[in-house]
Amino acid sequence: MSDIEATVTLPVGYETHTLYEILTQPVAWRAALAEVEAKQDLIKALWSSGRFSEILVTGCGSTHYLSQAVAPLLQQQLGIRARPMPASELLLFPETVIAPDSRPLLFTISRSGHTTETVRVAEAFKRKYAGQEIVTVGCYPESELVALSHLALVVAAGQEQSVVQTRSFSAMLVASQAAVALAHESQFEVMQTLPVLGEQLIATYHKLAQQLGQDKQFERFYFLGSGLQYGLASEANLKMKEMSLSISEAFHFMEFRHGPMSMVNEHTLIVALLSDRARDYELAVLREMRALGARILVLADQPVPENASDYQVIFNSGLPETQHGVLYLPVMQLLGYYRARANGQNPDQPHNLTAVIVLE
Ligand code: F1P
Which of 237, 225, 320, 315 is nearest to 278 (CA)? Predict the structure, then answer.
């Protein structure tokens, strides 16, 4: 495509690095699983150590949204308080986040490992909580955050030319979910099916994502997710904004009725990340929004009744939502990608953005 000026050689047959990296991301999921397997003894020892009373999970931008997906999983699976927050909040208002008598574990997530707020949080944490441990999940082994951490899960295969996070995000999610799964051994083994499931999903639904992304009847996008899915809905929303500059927002599923649904019209696409547990409540919301004129794209592990959706992406993974979260991502990344291309934008060079934000 002539409007794409490549700085690094584009993979043959791909119009942008971003598309290539989205379509091939299951390769990075395999690497993420291998990294966790290689460090499983250290991870299991940490989870069973009893050395911390709560877990602070933090990142910036996409990796803050990743912390929103990881923290509830940590709390649910480890039975210990885990709280997600942007690194800037933890840096500037720590007393609003950390309990006074806390013995915290700091769990940082950062593709680059260089983002200033996240690095400064780790430095301040080391000063204030000497002896408490820091875990980091990222894509670059030679980063400041890796140097500051006691345990680093690094997925170099997640590195990308894309400014916006795509395969890096999904690889870091797989690494995080796999690390948590080690708290219950059996849950880790079943995650080995994810890369093949991802490849099949991308092959099956790539065209649907392209069709919906290019469909100009849609002028506003709402991403709905609850529980483990809320962070992923927020990330999908950020992808739509970063790549296509569209009107889009993310909400907790049931929250959408409490005001935001006033925005629903016939130009609205609702992207619904269905959970296992609250599925019936979520389907009720979708039926109501459809009646208001919205078109509905459902992403779920099992098919849903026709009256609740216009389009369905079905994983058929057989995995519980504590392990199948990554399968929501590829279609939503492609949706934002193709909307950007339909708008004549170059996702490899998103408006106003850089890959890492380093402050003075
Ligand atoms: C954090 C981040 C990204 C965002 C953009 C700028 O980077 O804010 O989330 O999408 O690329 O940097 P990192 O700490 O995950 O490297």
Answer: 225
- Amino acid identity, residue 84? P
As a whole number of angstroms, the distance between CA 309 and CA 296 comes to 5
Confidence grade of residue 7 (pLDDT, cut at 50, 70, 90): low
- Please name the residue that has the structure tokens 């509830």: 72
Within 6 Å (CB) of ligand 1, which residues are found? 59-63, 110-112, 115, 118, 163-165, 353, 355-357
Q: Which atom of ligand 1 is nearest to the CA of 238?
A: 10
> How far is the C-alpha of 358 from the C-alpha of 360, rounded, in Å?
7
Best of 18, 62, 107 for a ligand 1 pocket test (most atoms within 8 Å of beta carbon): 62
Q: Is 294 left (phi over 0), alpha (psi -120 to 50) or beta?
A: beta
Nearest CA to ligand 1 atom 11: 355
pLDDT of residue 333 exceeding 80: yes
Which of 108, 111, 238 should be mutated for ligand 1, with most atoms under 8 A from CB? 111
For the stretch 226-254, pLDDT in tens is 999 999 999 999 999 999 999 999 999 99
Distance CA 214, CA 69 (A): 28
Task: In whole angstroms, give the CA distance from residue 145 to residue 122.
Answer: 7
Q: Position of tokens 């080391």? A: 126
| Closest alpha carbon to 161 in 182, 145, 139 | 139
Q: Where are the alpha helices (DSSP H) in the chain?
A: 17-23, 26-38, 40-47, 62-78, 87-92, 116-128, 144-148, 167-181, 185-189, 194-214, 230-244, 279-291, 329-342
Mean pLDDT of 45-53: 96
Atom 12 of ligand 1, residue of closest alpha carbon? 356
* Domains present along the chain, CATH in parentheses: 3-183 (3.40.50.10490), 194-342 (3.40.50.10490)
Going by C-beta distance under 8 Å and a sequence separation of 6 or more, which residues neighbour residue 341?
15, 213, 214, 347
Residue nearest (by alpha carbon) to ligand 1 atom 4: 61
Give tens-digit pLDDT for 95-126: 999 989 999 999 999 999 999 999 999 999 99
